[in-house]
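Repro:
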Amino acid sequence: MTPIGERQRFDLTGRRAFVVGGASGLGKAIAIGLAQHGASVGVGDINATNATEVARGIQGSGGRAVAIECDVRSESSIGSAFESMTEHLGPVDILVYTAFELQMRAKPESYPLDAWERGLKANLTGALLCMQAAGRIMIAQGRGGSIVSISSNTGSSGFGRGLVVYPVSKAGLNQLTRELAVEWAQYNIRVNAVQPCQFRTPAFKKQIDDPSVDSKAMMARMLSGIPLGRFGEPEDIVGPVVFLASDAASMVTGTMLPVDGGNLALNASGFPVW
């Protein structure tokens, strides 16, 4: 049985978490999960209506939450969002960056520059700006903190499928995680990332429903690379993020944690045969 002291290390009571991209999908599950573990949660998203629904759901369950409109493609919007977070809940202790844009599919030899730049702005530059804003607050407070970003298994291996900018930006996010972990360790700010495989989210459904692809064949191909034999559910991401955000991970920084059913462990030509 787990000692009470160890269980308490996962307790986030008194912490203030800002989940950027928290209005749907993995971000929504994370925002709810952090609240269930005691954190006050700012639900940041460009979709203010959905963010408000998530915040009200947390409040209805006895938690403390506020919806904050945030466009990660705008530096001024990010600045205003962190000001709102501080005003309503207090200085941020935990930042979870889940915002992303999948962008269009196109052949890499003709991938449009504007799509490339939009993808980098949302997936990587927006992450940097949010981490900078959180880092400045955490450094000023002098109490340390935890930053967790939702990366992807595609940031560590070739992805294909004509997306191009998505895996490249996720690889950049992984390296940003390492750099900030090293730079900010002196302030006891831990910086980590989670690398999920395909999870059943609205973005995943959009891919599957794309009329230009054979969805049945694509899903079978995806599952063949996941040894656990299933896609992730949003709730599967909560435990790993809570761990990284909590004192239970007090010696963990600069790591990319696969939450991928064994995908990154599997060689491209590997499979069990008995």
